[in-house]
Structures
1.
Amino acid sequence: MSLFAGLEHIVREDEPLAPYTNLKLGGKAQYFAEPTTEGEIAELVRRATAAGLATRLIGGGTNLLVRDSGVSGLVIHLSAPAFSTLTIEGNRMIVGGGVRLSHFVSSCAREGFDGPEHLVGIPGTIGGALHVNSGSDGVDIGSWCVAAKALTRTGELVQRGADALSFSYRSSSLNELAILEATFEFERENSESLTREMQRNWIVRRARQPSFGEPAAYLFKDHLGEPAGELISRAGAKGLRAGAVQLFDANPNYLVAKEGAKVEDVLSLIEAVKTHVNDKIGVELALAMQIW
Ligand SMILES: Cc1cc2nc3c(=O)[nH]c(=O)nc-3n(C[C@H](O)[C@H](O)[C@H](O)COP(=O)(O)OP(=O)(O)OC[C@H]3O[C@@H](n4cnc5c(N)ncnc54)[C@H](O)[C@@H]3O)c2cc1C
């Protein structure tokens, strides 16, 4: 592995990616790295770029389908403690890109930081969530983000201030290769009432999404303010399935992969739902999940 000489302790070849994704499907990464410092991730990216290798980031893998052919180039996983810190400074929280969204949400409620209690139940990491501006019920993570530290595709560390950040529905200006850290700023509220609100939201949400750990995916973006799940129901596509993959009953904007599910089943079901909704109600659904 002369390309990554001196970094062998953090780089593996031909690493299966399925265990790192929620759907537990798909092939291998040519190179897979778990850097432990900002210096290491920068060095990995510089070497991959110099060698003409594509580099990708994987967070919680909750918004990803990896094809059976796998991924050529380098996949970086921010699993090390250096990317999982969470610090409070006054009304601000500084959070590593690898921090679980669930940890962020519960820490905000405990601290009396108003807003993130609406995001309870969304799986994934801070980096993945900021990359696509994840959210729920009209509340998006980008709305509290005032600064970010990122790594460019050439391996340069950059700081982005509020003036360089813009977020809209499932879209973010933070399109650097890796979001390493983000600073959020909040209004304060009573911590006990935020915790109660978070628990209420969690009960409602639990009933309308697949349970944590179940191989599942969140499929499409809402269309002109109408939830994708309602569009799919309105088009009569609710019962569609492909092989061992089926739409989730309580909200058909999720699919659930049963035992024996294949990547091809997921791709076929996505295509079938898109075609059905377009044919029946003339809406072109846009995919929310990423396919590698
Ligand atoms: C049951 C279920 C419910 C869901 N509910 C919602 C919901 O209500 N609302 C919603 O918006 N989404 C929802 N999702 C989708 C998903 O959980 C979120 O989009 C989540 O924020 C993705 O984070 P992740 O860390 O898992 O990203 P990944 O799946 O690992 O990656 C997604 C994308 O982000 C990029 N990325 C990941 N980490 C970084 C980083 N540090 N820097 C730069 N880019 C990065 C990846 O390269 C990839 O392009 C749901 C998914 C499931 C399975």
2.
Amino acid sequence: MIEFKKVSFAYETGKEVIRDLSFTIRGGEAVGLIGANGAGKSTVMKLLLGLLFGEGEIISAGLRLDKANLPLIRRKTGFILQDSDDQMFMPTVYDDMMFAPLNYGMTKEEAERRVDEVLERLELQALKHSYNHKLSGGEKKMAAIATILAMEPETILMDEPTAALDPYNRRLIIRRINGLSQTKLIASHDLDMILDTCERVILLSEGRIAADGKAEEVLRDKALLEANHLELPLSLSRR
Ligand SMILES: Nc1ncnc2c1ncn2[C@@H]1O[C@H](COP(=O)(O)OP(=O)(O)O)[C@@H](O)[C@H]1O
Ligand SMILES: [Mg+2]
């Protein structure tokens, strides 16, 4: 489903931030991508979306990531940006949710049916005609997720989905993420959220894999986490 084969990338020549990175994510897996600030998590996401191009080979949505396949890959991949303001660019939630389905050639009736179905599933009907600029941070994040789901993606990439959310909205997002059956790659340093949403964790350190295994095992390894400027999830440190 997603594969990195010896991928390297540098923003500036000579300073590689992704180094010879290889991993595979199978269809239906939920994988947490963790690591200290600057480890390369967001860069991996951007490479996967074809926003950046490096060396090596990337397979996404079963297709080789190149300029020719990019439109189809983008269509099959939903991406939740860290800052929802970068994502919601139409006046209302409804306008944003309709945009991609209409763009992909659906009739207005079909698109509207899909929008209503997603809003109902996320219990967000009340936000349908809300103005994006009047939403709270948590509402905006939920609306961004709804917009992505209206595209019916095969894969969902999320970059720091719980950053800047209050505890209530954080719990809500975690519950909604767990309700999604798609293949998921979630980058975050909120390790409690990763533990609650992912069965597998890839730990990045300076653009390389420092660990790749069961979430319960990687997130329990205090020495490994501390060496990577991370802390044990609260729910594991209390036991
Ligand atoms: N646009 C950019 N130009 C130059 N360097 C960048 C840019 N974006 C990120 N970097 C650098 O690349 C490295 C990886 O960054 P990033 O992928 O954002 O890490 P993370 O998401 O894990 O915090 C960091 O050293 C960061 O400073
Ligand atoms: Mg980042």
